[in-house]
């Protein structure tokens, strides 16, 4: 385990969109998952498009809107045009004051995300500290991309460490290594995604290439003994033999990962895409036989398959 050099830390704040307590799928034991807002990727299957924007924002669920127009006069920015379903909503003008959310009777408008301090997050985390210890759990930092807010993540992880709370991170692996490498010394576990082994296909499906990500995975796994690779398994994207074999080769020859966890694709939440003003795309979940075959391929490279579900 690397030791993190102590560095003076100025108190800082960051943006989160949720703290999920009592999670059992984000690592060992009972965990609280802190979702940091903001992600530089745009995976076409992303289940959390509300995590993309690094700032608080207003989601608009048009299917819940009755067109009562109560939201229109309270908006001081003129961001909502009156209309049948108040659907003409200017995100550029919106200052995220949330007045429209407060008066909306149907929940069609919802502010998501908040700027919080490290201490704000700790107040929630501390409530469950006894359960983390008893279950062998802890806190998982997720996103979005948690390393997109490196100082906030650093301080959160350091504070948990001081409290004796186990910490893990879920990351896309897309970050500047030099800026964040010390943070790995503050974490007890790392979950990092491989979405596709082909650089061009990776770019088509996520908006970024995979070379830096693969380099980072190799670096993390050599530094941190508790690194698990997660693979979102999607029929149209990556669930084919050639890709999984390439992954096995890479992991065997360039990393020391503890294991691989396959996460079969599930519903991408189309309503949330519309609510953030984006367009979603539906994919297919591979069947059980396909998933078993993918696991066999990876296991044949001497890599453990892990499953927290
Ligand atoms: S959050 Fe505020 S600025 Fe944005 S649309 Fe609603 S009332 Fe207008
Ligand atoms: S207040 Fe809510 S339901 Fe009424 S028009 Fe505005 S968004 Fe639609
Ligand atoms: S890296 Fe994760 S949060 Fe970011 S777009 Fe991809 S699936 Fe969504």
Return the CATH architecture of the largest domain.
Alpha-Beta Barrel
Strand content: 15-25%
Bound molecules: iron/sulfur cluster
CATH topology of the largest domain: TIM Barrel
| Approximate shape | globular
The count of helical stretches stands at 11
Residue-averaged pLDDT: 93
Largest sheet: 8 strands, mixed
Query: How does the helix and strand content classify structurally?
Result: alpha/beta
Cα-to-Cα separation, first versus last residue: 26 Å
CATH superfamily of the largest domain: Aldolase class I
Give a count of the beta strands, DSSP E runs of length 2 or more.
10
Side by side, the strands of the main sheet go 5-1-2-6-7-8-9-10
> How many whole angstroms does the radius of gyration measure?
21 Å
**Would you list the SSEs in sequence order as H and E?**
EEEHHEEHHEHEHEHHEHEHH
Descriptive terms for the model:
10 strands, single chain, 18% strand, 309 residues, TIM Barrel, alpha/beta, binds iron/sulfur cluster, eight-stranded mixed beta sheet, globular, 11 helices, 2 domains, Alpha-Beta Plaits
Describe the protein's topology:
Elements: E1 13-23, E2 31-36, E3 57-60, H1 71-74, H2 99-103, E4 109-112, E5 114-117, H3 118-127, H4 129-135, E6 138-142, H5 150-162, E7 167-171, H6 177-180, E8 189-193, H7 199-206, H8 211-223, E9 227-233, H9 241-254, E10 259-264, H10 270-275, H11 288-299
Parallel strand pairs: 2-6, 6-7, 7-8, 8-9, 9-10
Antiparallel strand pairs: 1-2, 1-5, 3-4
Helix pairs in contact: 9-11
This protein binds iron/sulfur cluster (3 copies).
One iron/sulfur cluster binds at residues 39, 41-43, 46, 48, 51, 143-145, 172.
